[in-house]
Specification:
The protein has 324 residues and is α/β, with parallel strands linked by helices. 42% of the residues lie in helices and 11% in strands. The chain contains 13 helices and ten strands. α10 packs parallel to α12 (275-282).
Length: 324
């Protein structure tokens, strides 16, 4: 390197969601149900293979999620959060965050649920703090299928109710040293750019953070880069994921909606997300040091994660991408 050469960008810590490892082919099983049953009965073997695959892919961070890669599974396998942390560390790995799936937690739409919602979040935050992580990621409730009667409006009154709950949860987990960040899930009430802007405007930045997902924002016809730039100082973590195109039909919002969305998603670098601009926007956020490459149910997760890493490393090295 000469004095005229630009400095190499700092190497980020790469992470992924444990959903990356949920494809039954990776386990030699014939269905997702078979994987859930096997992993429930063999949690230690499940985590051993996930850890080995992460190490092979050169990805050191992990986001926990719903079963089989959830907090309860880690507790069954290792007996406690500290033992889980030490086992990960022995593989050169660490916990970044835990994701709260709507079906796996008390319903935010049910009146009177606030004590249960806060208690559930505190339980997760206590685990994360002991495991060495600082982020609890959640989302807002899903929309309803368009045309459903009575209609369900995502209006100011609704968002004010969600903000009140978010404040209570964010304050509760902050006492454990954990930040609460909201994920921009497709077909949820935090999907469109307008949803995100409204919710961010109504919530206190000391207690409520953002976890933008580049794919899901694009699926809603939004500009993920613009969202990241507008809310840069509240981005605690981001999900790096690509989209084929915006969802162009009204999906039925039920337990199958996630499978319906799947054809619109693709591996990094093969879709419509402007990765150079996204990388630059991410470099200006508090969550800049972690790149979470999200790949839902990859049949060959090691190869897919390596390919995702290569895309990120390439765009981060491009001229014009600012690095800390």
């Amino acid at each position: 390197m000469t004095l005229l050469d630009p400095p190499a960008p700092p190497t980020p810590r790469f992470a992924t969601d444990v959903i990356t490892f949920y494809h039954p082919d990776f386990w030699g099983l014939d269905s997702a149900d078979a994987l859930r049953r096997w992993a429930h009965d063999h949690p230690r073997l499940f985590w051993a293979r996930v850890m080995d695959a992460l190490a092979q892919a050169g990805v050191s961070g992990l986001e926990l999620t719903f079963a089989p890669g959830d907090i309860d599974s880690a507790l069954r396998a290792f007996g406690g959060a500290d033992a889980f942390r030490r086992e990960l560390a022995a593989h050169g790995l660490f916990v970044v965050s835990a994701f709260v799936a709507g079906s796996d937690a008390p319903d935010w739409l049910q009146g009177g649920n606030l004590p249960a919602i806060v208690a559930d979040a505190e339980r997760r935050a206590a685990f994360l703090a002991e495991a060495g992580a600082e982020l609890l990621v959640t989302g807002l409730p899903m929309r309803r299928t368009f045309g459903t009667r009575p209609p369900f409006f995502v209006d100011a009154a609704y968002m004010n109710r969600m903000a009140d709950i978010a404040h209570a949860v964010g304050e509760a987990v902050s006492r454990y040293g954990v930040k609460l960040a909201f994920h921009t899930e497709s077909n949820s009430t935090l999907w469109y750019e307008r949803d995100i802007d409204l919710f961010m405007a109504l919530t206190d930045p000391r207690y409520v953070w953002l976890c933008p997902d580049s794919c899901h924002i694009a699926l809603g016809g939004g500009d993920p880069v613009a969202v990241a730039r507008r809310h840069s100082q509240r981005v605690a973590l981001a999900h790096w994921k690509d989209a084929v195109k915006p969802i162009d039909v009204e999906l039925t919002i039920d337990e199958t909606v996630f499978a319906q969305q799947q054809p619109y998603m693709t591996e990094l670098g093969t879709g419509i997300v402007d990765w150079k601009a996204w990388a630059d926007a991410m470099s200006r956020t508090p969550g800049a040091d972690i790149v979470l490459v999200e790949l839902d149910e990859a049949a060959d997760p090691v190869a897919a994660l390596r390919a995702g890493r290569a895309v990120v490393e390439r765009v981060r090295a491009l001229p014009g991408v600012r690095m800390r």
